[in-house]
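Q: For a teaching handout, I want to show students what a protein-ligand complex looks like in token form. Below are the inputs, and the small molecule is zinc ion. Please produce the holo structure.
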Amino acid sequence: MTTTALTHIASLVTNDPSLGNGTPLGLIQDAAVVIEGDRIVWTGESSKAPATDNVLDAAGRAVIPGFVDSHSHLVFAGDRTQEFNARMSGQPYRAGGIRTTVAATRAATDEELSANVARYLAEALRQGTTTFETKSGYGLTVEDEARALRIAGRHTDEVTYLGAHIVSPDYADDPAGYVDLVTGPMLEACAPHARWIDVFCEQGAFDGDQARAILTAGLAEGLHPRVHANQLSYGPGVQLAVELDAASADHCTHLTDADVDALGQGNTVATLLPGAEFSTRATWPDARRLLDAGATVALSTDCNPGSSFTSSMPFCVALAVRDMGMTPDEAIWSATAGGAAALRRTDIGRITPGARADLVLLDAPSHVHLAYRPGVPLVSAVWRSGQRVV
Ligand SMILES: [Zn+2]
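A: Here is the structure, written as tokens, with zinc ion included.
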């Protein structure tokens, strides 16, 4: 198989603390990476790189692992420009706006939905995202949820069943009946097409008992839980996520000390989604508090047309550093290795031998520039599974 070396990398983020400067980022200065097929086979100092078939000179620029966006909602149609505009004119955000997207998504064809996913994925790839998770949740019927998951599965392996996004408008007077549907016929139709099950545990969506019933039913069908937890208010979501060993509790904006302790001690990753707070002018989640308690923190876009219509991980990194108390190193780790942890993956989010060859070449000498130069398109080249895709 052909080998390719990327040499003279000014600063390489490996996410292996045993390498380089010994920090969690495992930074190596004047580094090289060797790719063979879809894998990384060698990482180290440029002067010690083995001979390879091809050599690419990074010319003093930085390389980081491809971003792992572990939370998005890309199977949708329509947009909610007017709702955003109204919110920025002073109206509050509530969970019910999802109904607008549900109506548009049900009315769209398979081709329209798939083209939409492809479009936002291409957008994300240009900004360095090489792995992404996406969810159903804008169909809310057996047919429409299963369809969303089939379409998502054409674009990624990380597919999440979110029939419990909100109570379907068709069941407005019978929320218990909707939970029966989500845990019964809808689950049966959706489970073959998903890896994960998720629930929006929130006032106006599903309470703790309903969320527990939904996640437990998913577990019995072989789906692993993740939870939209404690976004708009304090509630039982985080504790439930930790108790059920969910891979991730997402949002984590309103946390009690007990919630923070639970995340600090459990295996559940706290996934923070600053695009949502940005787009709803809400209070930022306190990443510092979680990190100081020992929690594993991931950063993700929550890309969706209602509350966070950004596909940009660099934007989320910049927000996390500016407004959530993260250092640039912590934010880069959370957007790469943290996202991998939130998907319980060890083959991505790091640049070490054996990992999938997902790399981002930055038009900057250091990863710190992603926060230092917010909004600037610094992604210069992207490799996914060893193939240069940008
Ligand atoms: Zn979400």
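A: Two things your students might notice: Residues 110-126 form the longest helix (17 residues). The two ends are 22 Å apart (CA to CA).
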